[in-house]
């Protein structure tokens, strides 16, 4: 993506965020790029493209100050047993045996931010009731500053109670205030400047309870409209359009919310991503945002920036029926990563990984630094043998899915790689990346390469949400693997034509298609490695 205005808060296309002025090293002394020389520094977060197990802890070390404002709720998860029916109606009787409560809505976003290492404060209105007391207790226990979370005796803390039995949610009942007392809104309005001042990021969670109605909305927009480049503003709202005057850095509507803004029906399949991308201009105009991230639940997300190319993530969904709040986790991780200067596409991938973690948890839960690191570390044994891969592909074909295969060294991951793999995934349903073995890389690139072992390269590539499978080949070309797997599409990046590739004949022999993807100029792994070895930072753009 093209560069825009730099700064931790402002979105600089895919390269946003200030450069660190000092060298940074991992705890092991090994750099993020895998270079083990003691004099080589770890790349700044603003240059980090891939996901790795060390990244969540490194982001947490930044401890960005984040304020979450908006609709604070308490989620209840009550479970029980059913052994009889109600006499008055054909309804089961649930004997409650357990009551669990967790912060929900804006409060869940705050809890996730705190668990990921941010310094979190909150501002909003809750009731002077038992639900409000429990909500505040849990926030304080997580280290969240609640001094600007006001209580009002005429306000009911919004609660959402789910009743389940045998692992199945039977019903949910909501208890919310009909109106927000005007004096409570006036108190909240007066607190806004103190709440949002001197913060690395502000997250606005507007779910329509009335807490962020006027005059609070006007004061928020006025207080943040003249913000500096070092303050990130994220709007997570059922309807982001009233916040367009704020010109937020990011808005995060889900599919239904995006459909309402576009006044169309999106459906429920993976084709939603293409429809959203086709209406990119309308979404950007309606929200006034520098970038729109549309979340598509099981189909991942679509990033639409003002400048640069769209970016996709793909979810790894779970069958768990009782998970809730993954969207809050996504917003929290995205905010933390961007506030710490991680590039936008990498921030999106990290947020998707965090959401993938919590969908495997029952109830409303959070994703913390250590758990996210363990999840990313789990990709360390990601490379499949050709036999294993062939079995997986056979199953996908039985489901009518199209397989895309690409190959390369992918030694030190950079923006050209991630953009290319994102494009390759969109050619079909399943993306397989075949990595050159270490011996193969040495033959191609010389004795100084690879920088990263094939196990490390496989782990980084597998952690990208667009990649479904990784394998390794040790032959001069991937032709033997192509002939065995017979992918519907063979993708290659660069300034090639199909006629220039030795693989084309093998692909076309069984009726496959060769697709040449965009060549990203001036994105060279060799040049990047040389900069790291020389201790140089990123090249400064002209102008």
Outline the fold blueprint.
Blueprint: H1 55-60, E1 65-70, E2 72-85, E3 92-105, H2 106-115, E4 119-127, H3 130-141, E5 145-152, E6 159-165, E7 168-175, H4 182-196, E8 201-206, H5 216-225, E9 232-237, E10 250-251, H6 255-262, H7 272-278, H8 280-287, E11 291-295, E12 301-305, E13 311-313, E14 323-324, H9 326-339, H10 344-358, E15 363-364, H11 369-377, E16 383-384, H12 386-398, E17 403-408, H13 415-425, E18 430-436, H14 438-445, H15 454-462, E19 469-473, H16 479-485, E20 489-493, H17 503-509, E21 513-517, H18 525-533
Parallel strand pairs: 1-4, 1-8, 2-6, 4-5, 8-9, 9-10, 14-15, 16-19, 17-18, 17-20, 18-19, 20-21
Antiparallel strand pairs: 2-3, 6-7, 11-12, 12-13
Question: How do you describe this structure in short?
Answer:
The chain has 543 residues and is α/β, with parallel strands linked by helices.
| β-strand number | 21
End-to-end CA span: 17 Å
Helix share, percent? 25-40%
Estimate what percentage of residues fall within beta strands: 15-25%
Sheet of most strands: 6 strands, parallel
Radius of gyration: 25 Å
Mean pLDDT: 86
Give the structural class: alpha/beta
Question: So how many helices?
Answer: 18
Uncertain ranges = 1-41
What shape does the CA trace take? globular
What strand line-up does the widest sheet have? Answer: 5-4-1-8-9-10
């Amino acid at each position: 993506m093209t560069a825009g205005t730099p700064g931790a808060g402002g979105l600089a296309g895919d390269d946003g965020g200030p450069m660190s002025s000092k060298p940074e090293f991992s705890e092991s002394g090994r750099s993020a790029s895998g270079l083990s020389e003691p004099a080589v520094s770890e790349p700044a977060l603003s240059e980090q493209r891939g996901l790795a197990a060390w990244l969540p802890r490194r982001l947490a070390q930044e401890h960005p100050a984040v304020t979450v404002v908006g609709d604070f709720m308490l989620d209840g998860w009550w479970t029980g047993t059913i052994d009889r029916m109600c006499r008055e109606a054909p309804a089961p009787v649930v004997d409650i045996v357990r009551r669990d409560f967790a912060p929900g809505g804006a409060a869940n976003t705050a809890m996730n931010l705190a668990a990921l290492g941010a310094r979190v404060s909150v501002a909003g209105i809750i009731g002077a009731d038992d639900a409000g007391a429990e909500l505040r207790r849990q926030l304080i226990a997580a280290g969240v500053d609640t001094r600007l979370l006001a209580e009002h005796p005429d306000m009911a803390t919004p609660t959402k109670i789910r009743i389940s039995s045998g692992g199945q949610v039977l019903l949910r009942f909501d208890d919310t205030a009909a109106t927000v007392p005007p004096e409570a809104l006036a108190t909240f309005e007066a607190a806004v400047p103190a709440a949002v001042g001197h913060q690395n990021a502000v997250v606005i969670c507007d779910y329509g309870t009335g807490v962020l109605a006027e005059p609070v909305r006007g004061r928020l927009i006025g207080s943040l409209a003249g913000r500096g480049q070092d303050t990130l503003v994220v709007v997570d709202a059922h309807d982001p359009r009233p916040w367009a005057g704020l010109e937020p850095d990011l808005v995060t509507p889900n599919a239904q919310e995006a459909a309402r803004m576009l006044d169309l029906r999106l459906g429920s399949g993976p084709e939603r991503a293409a429809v959203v991308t086709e209406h990119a201009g309308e979404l950007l105009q309606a929200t006034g945002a520098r970038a729109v991230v549309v979340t598509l639940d099981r189909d991942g997300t679509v990033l639409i920036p003002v400048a640069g190319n769209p970016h996709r993530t793909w979810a790894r969904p779970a069958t768990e029926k009782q998970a809730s709040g993954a969207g809050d986790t996504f917003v929290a991780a995205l905010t933390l990563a961007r506030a710490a200067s991680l590039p936008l596409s990498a921030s999106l991938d990290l947020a998707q990984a965090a959401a993938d973690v919590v969908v495997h948890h029952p109830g409303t839960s959070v994703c913390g630094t250590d758990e996210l690191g363990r999840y990313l570390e789990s990709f360390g044994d990601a490379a499949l043998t050709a036999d294993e891969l062939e079995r997986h592909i056979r199953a996908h074909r039985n489901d009518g899915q199209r397989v895309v295969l690409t190959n390369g060294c992918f030694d030190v991951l950079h923006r050209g790689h991630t953009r290319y793999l994102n494009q390759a995934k969109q050619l079909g349903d399943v993306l397989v990346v075949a990595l050159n073995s270490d011996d193969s890389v040495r033959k191609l690139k010389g004795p100084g390469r690879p920088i990263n072992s094939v196990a490390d390269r496989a782990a980084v590539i597998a952690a990208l949400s667009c990649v479904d499978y990784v394998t390794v080949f040790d032959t001069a070309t991937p032709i033997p693997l192509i002939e065995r797997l017979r992918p519907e599409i063979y993708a290659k990046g660069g300034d090639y034509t199909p006629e220039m590739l030795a693989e084309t004949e093998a692909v076309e022999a069984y009726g496959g298609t060769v697709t040449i993807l965009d060549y990203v100029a001036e994105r060279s792994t060799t040049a990047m490695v040389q900069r790291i070895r020389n201790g140089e930072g990123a090249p400064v753009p002209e102008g």
